[in-house]
Amino acid sequence: MTAYVPLDDLTDTERAVRAAFGGGARLDLAGKSVRGAVLAGLLTGAYPLGVGAMPALRLDNARVTGRLDLEGRAVDSVITLQRCEFEHAPVLRMARLVALSLRGCRVPALYARNLRVGSDLLLEAGFTCDGVLDLTDATVEGTLRLAGAVLRNPGAAALLGARLRISGSIQAISLRVFGELRLRGAGVGGSVHLTGAQLAHPSGVALEATGLVVAGNLLCDSAGGRFDVAGTAVLSGARIGGDAVFSGARLHDARDGDGQVLVLPRGTAADHYVLDAERLRVDGDLKLDSGFTAHGSVGLRGAHIGGHLLLSGAEMGHRAMLADQVKAFAEGRTTTRVPVALVADGVEVRGDVEARGTRFGETDSDGDARTAFRAYGQVRLVDAHVHGSASLSRAWLRGPGIDVLFADRLRVGGTLFLRKVRASGSIRLQNAHIGSSLDCSGARLIKPRLRPDGSVKPSLDARVATIGKDLLCSYGFRAIGGVRVRLVEVGKMATFAGARLGGRTGPGHPVTDKALSAYGLTAQELVLVFPERRPPLGLVILTRASAVSVTDGAGLWAARGGVDVEDFTFTALAAVPEVSVRTRLAWLRKVQPDFAPGPYDRLAAVYSDGGEEELAQRVHLERQRRRYAELHVAGRLWGRLQDVTVGYGYRPWLAMVWLGLFWLLGTLWFGDHPMVKLDNDMDPVWNPPLLATDLLLPIIDLGQDNKWRMVGASQWISGVLIAVGWILATTAATGATRVLKRG
């Protein structure tokens, strides 16, 4: 504590200040000097005042020399200093003040650790601090006003407010800070207003608000001026009772590095963030929208948002940092480092995630592409939980050769909208759970992730996902790397109507090997109608897929890599446009060079269940023809014989036709060539029709066979009729057995 100045040593100016202080009058010193020790003496009762005095220190335009030191002192008078300039930093440590206003004042620093102010603390309207403003552990039983203030301490802390307690709000609109603004563990009973503030600590942390507790709203928006942070903003573990608003804010820094991270095993990543809000809790909405720009990564790991997460019109990541990715992809090689735009692993959003473009005028429900969410680098939503719906419609996601949307085990209570998304990179939704629909209508997914060997991974990978209602990949949906929906459960419809799947990712790049991998997919309705002129450019796998109703077309069966339909089950089948059974059998022959019975059995069952038994028989006939065609020579001959004679049992009337034909031939022959009886003791009647019948029917004896001596050509004719009878009987029996087994 600086010693007070004796009363007799006061200057004329200081005597005038003493007189004004006693009556609480405002005094404009017009740049005249007053010693800090004199002011401290006045405030602590060192100078006697007259009877009835109502002291208050109200000075304008004073120049305070020496040091104003009130450390540990209790001051009952109001202190209001405007546009004053201090030669030395005031010392207010552990002081107890009724009120303090330093509007427009300029101080080299301000040491106020453990200060307690009984009302508002006013450091606004041009208040300038050229060193540290230390409010560590201070208590303000009103509002802290920093609107328009300028705090300068480049390369160090400009405001130390750790564990600062404010009963009211922080009003810091248009605040300018050069250095670190530290509010670690601070508690604010009202709201924090940083609208239009500019914080600059480019090589370090510009806003350190770890553990900040705000009962009201955190407003870091651009209403009346853009909130701008040059450096890192840290809100880890902060608690916001209302909304956290960063609409239109701009965050950037000048740290070394390219904004890329090494993606570690098990889906983890380490990174430097321009906004680090790990474990942030916001009871209302978190708004990173309407022009919000983060030239770097935004971290929301483990954050809890009680309302909505708004990302419409936001831009995250560095465009420049994608240069290596673009070059590597063009060369067909992978990289070990991945740029990251948003890390929201484990985030919980009680409302919706809204990232589609703002709707203006006549734009459709997907919003305006000009104001949609844009990400330059990977967007991570691993283990995220959105209780409502999530819309990234029309979003621009840039990450060539990587998983640009990495959302394994994502849970969405409503619909996940990816309508008209423009993604340079792959979308990964493995083990995701979507309560309603996954809508990718009109999405355009190019430049998918590459494997280390240069081969192409799926553009959309949703294997083992669960979708409560519909999977929509239609209306112009395009996936250069194909789609993987292996073991996906779809509650209602999975449609790929009009989709374009597969292709070459770039000149000299390999073509996608699997255009659609739907192994084990289950759905009530499955639509596989592809443009006939643009069929899937790769293999379509429908192995063990299951659907109640399937709609297909020629485009599916023209897939460049073929169609695998082994164990593909369905109960109803339609085509657009409708096709004949002959066409369907041709499709099966085309995609199955090696015979497999399952697809034929399933197709026949569908026709049979629909009451079209004739069509079912045609399918069964084709099945048997293909089966015997792959046997050895004897098997092929036997199959051909069954086909011609009884149609493998599915055309038993053919046997009657052949029997009738040979019976007629036999009757005509024996009608012109009567035979001599074998036994003169017997007198059989020559009956050519009955003889031909007896020869053709094995086992049955009509009394004509073995009664006549067959000589010459008749002997051969009778042998042929007997052989034909046995062959027809055997094939008919084989066919009958097959029919009985089918029944």
Automatic annotation (TrEMBL):
User: Is Membrane tagged as a keyword?
Assistant: yes
Q: Where are the transmembrane segments?
A: 653-671, 716-740
Alphabetized, the UniProt keywords read:
Membrane, Transmembrane, Transmembrane helix
Q: Does the keyword Transmembrane helix apply?
A: yes
Would you tell me the protein name for this molecule?
A: Membrane-associated oxidoreductase
Gene source species:
Actinokineospora auranticolor
